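Chapter review. Work through the record for ADP-ribosyl cyclase/cyclic ADP-ribose hydrolase before attempting the end-of-chapter questions.
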Amino acid sequence: MPPPTSSSNVPPKTSYDVFLSFRGADTRHNLISHLYAALSRKHVTTFIDDHGLDRGEEISPTLLKAIEESKISVIIFSENYASSKWCLDELVKIMECMKTMSRNVLPVFYHVDPSDVRKQTGSFGQAFGVVKEKFKGSMDRVQRWSTALTEAANLSGWDSNNYRLESELIEGVIDEIIKKLYATFYSISTDLVGIDSHIEQILLLLCIGSLDVRFIGIWGMGGIGKTTIAEAIFSRISDQFAGCCFLSNVREKSSKLGLIHLKRDMYSKLLGDEKLSIEMSHALPTFVVDRLRRKKVIVFLDDVNDSEQLEALAGNHVWFGPGSRVIVTGRDKEVLQCKVDEIYKVEGLNHNDSLRLLSMKAFKEKQPPNDYAKLSEMVVNYAQGVPLALKVLGSHLYKRSQKEWETMLNKLKQFPDSNIQKILEISYDELDQMEKDIFLDIACFFKGCEKDKIEDILEGCGFAAEWGILRLTEKCLVTIQNNRLEMHDLIQEMGLHIAKRKGSRLWNSQDICHMLMTDMGKKKVEGIFLDMSKTGKIRLNHATFSRMPMLRLLKFYRTWSSPRSQDAVFIVKSAESNCLEGLSNRLSLLHWEEYPCKSLCSNFFMENLVELNMPRSNIEQLWNDNEGPPKLRRLDLSKSVNLKRLPDLSSTTNLTSIELWGCESLLEIPSSVQKCKKLYSLNLDNCKELRSLPSLIQLESLSILSLACCPNLKMLPDIPRGVKDLSLHDSGLEEWPSSVPSLDNLTFFSVAFCKNLRSLPSLLQWKSLRDIDLSGCSNLKVLPEIPDLPWQVGILQGSRKDYCRFHFLNCVNLGWYARLNIMACAQQRIKEIASAKTRNYFAVALAGSKTPEWFSYQSLGCSITISLPTCSFNTMFLGFAFCAVLEFEFPLVISRNSHFYIACESRFENTNDDIRDDLSFSASSLETIPESDHVFLWYRFNSSDLNSWLIQNCCILRKASFEFKAQYRFLSNHHPSTEKWEVKVKRCGVHLIYNENVQNAIAGDKNQWQQVTETNSNNKRSRDDYCSNQTNIIADGGSGYAEEEPQAKRLNDFCSVREYSSNAQDGTDYEASFVPSSSSSESFPTFYQFL
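Structure tokens for ADP-ribosyl cyclase/cyclic ADP-ribose hydrolase:
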């Protein structure tokens, strides 16, 4: 059993809004009669003792109970009030309830002085003296009367002598009573959790202080708390308006009572006129509008589901007076949009608030007991922030044992709670038939799928899919996140429950197997999604699907792979049949992994087919020529090893994607592919027998072309200039055809390991290029020109890319001239980036074993300590350049999970304290491991905190130390642990960069570059001398490279350039293989441009 819970503070019962305490002889036929009538017109429930003349000696229990159960007591102090012991006893009880029950007390001094009441003097005191004389034997009672009179008179109230007309006095009392009632409207609610933030946001939209009329919508799914939030707002601000009305359950009441009844009730409350005559649903009498325009009112219309309701009840803005507000709650965004100025969407509770709400319902505490913590978390996860679900489940689980909690949670997996489902199904019931079908398709099959693709499939089913999905989003049944269809788990659960009742959509393997092996329910089945990895073998007759005329969606798939010998689905063929017969012509989606037949059925006309996916199938033939599905948009036959050719594609002009990768027997692609003008992606990777392709130049929409691992493909076909992604790696390509146009939109280009490739065109015109991979092109004789990195590095400030990295791994055969280009440009870029003061990062890796001599501080080993000159870090200081020479001597196997990491930890010491800063960079997943010593050189923009600290302490800094470390990290697919391989740091260096030297350094480097480029190419001796003297520019001097570098096997003949963005939205790593242009000795070294 659950632990005992503490009692909660139960609010006292209230039967009346107002209790009137008065002396009948003084006020019954004047003030009291008018006050009571005014309260009645305001629909304020008032207790008035009409039989006071028949009282006995003591105040009746009924009267005492009425005082206790009234929210407000109004005391009318008149001249003879204190002469009545019954009035005085009422007063004592009223003041007692004010203290013990927090009741409101409002005194009215009717033709008496408040001071006389307080001190019991004057004519009021004389009347009280008469009673005192009668009860001089009960002085305790008399003292209670006197104390009560004094306390009541000290309260804020109304003095009739301050009002010219009695009606003005009554109006003031009524207004204050209404304010008090609305202020206590929500005092009984003790479980309002997580709504404060919603209220604050909606109050901002309401702009209470402005004089314009504003309509605000509160929108959200069923059970999310819209009404609760509206009620809380009503209780908080309604006293700021001259008239108010909260009209609840508009959807239900309008269907039962009619809009005219609701409209009459609403405007009667707003104007305080019970006899208001309204006979038309979409209009108001002129007299009513004129009265309404003179009042500042607030109206709440709860659960509106039809624009006609909103039109009838709220009309338009001009009906209401300045400063009025209309708040509408509903599930349908379209309904709200037709009238409101702003819409606020209510999201679910966060985890902490969800746990608190559940705990208050299940345990009457703010947090669950420790032994119920795990079970409570499970319930919270199930409810996913929906207050309705948390309240319902919490109430069910109140005072239940842990075993009962577990039983309830297990039950919910198969049988959703009916109270929750009843509320959620309201939104479903209001959909039209097409919207219901789309909703059930998404709930059963397409949650989490790409919106555009599912719209295509549903359009093939004959639905207006785009409109239908829009309506589902407006009704909070579906959401769109990153172009994917999503829905709340409880809503999906509701959809699955409905679909299961209908039997039109099947996803449970047991239900599907039973249906396939029998004739039960086949005629009404519209969709089948079977995970074959969750079932055993299923025997299919070749005519199994012929009895499913309504079938629109068919998908057999695996969530995990298994050996082909364990195929879940196979066919019992007839003697002459080699295919499935009778597939429904309504099919829009046919996805069958490991399809066992050699062809599709001959009587399958496919006029509605949008997506045909048969990866790893036995298919040899799709359709006969000129019989292709006209609506087909996506075709996937990947790894269908028996497929030799595609059929004629003349009819499939809507194709956008063709996936044929791994079709190892494929010989050709039909020339009719040129008619597929909408084709966006063509993947022919690993089609080993493919020898040629037709011209693709007419495919103007083609953006992705992948021909990787096609060893027999010697020539590239004509391709359109709009291609963005071109992958040719490990293909048999020998020459780059001159007919290929300038690829202006190309962003990714790979010819890695094309060992027969001898030349490439200049890439200077490929302005959009970001990623290049020329790795392993061992026969490439002529190097392409690469687009320049702009000389003015300041232009990078407009780029989203913060990190720029150039990796020349294992480029041991690079000539001295290429090395000179690399290091000279690296030094230059570091200085320019530092000068620009952008938050950029620059790094270079190159085979070598020496630290460039331009580094001010150098050391053997992995650490260096330097003594700092006075004021080293002044305002001209820009940052640090770092260098490390690493020794790679261990055997490693590169994987996608490998990660190279190099860092420098710094420590700066002064007379007071020290500070550390990790000046690191990551080289990410390298395809190549260095096989010899490599120089890593990098610059990183200092953090503002570090720079500020250095400048502030520059005059007292004495010493700085730097420790370098490098390692490979390998992440296991099966274990969360990370394996690390330390890399030895042989040398290191640090260089301080100052602003004052930048311009001079730039000019000097240009002059040095000019000297190099103007050197006579025949004067080799002069070149060598020059190179050996320029160790302040390059990592190792001149021809010394060739002598010092080991002759390791060359894994990468060219240079890998990488760029990473710390703030890129998609987190994509940008890669390229690169060699500086050697075709011209008169240009500055050309680096790849990333913008």
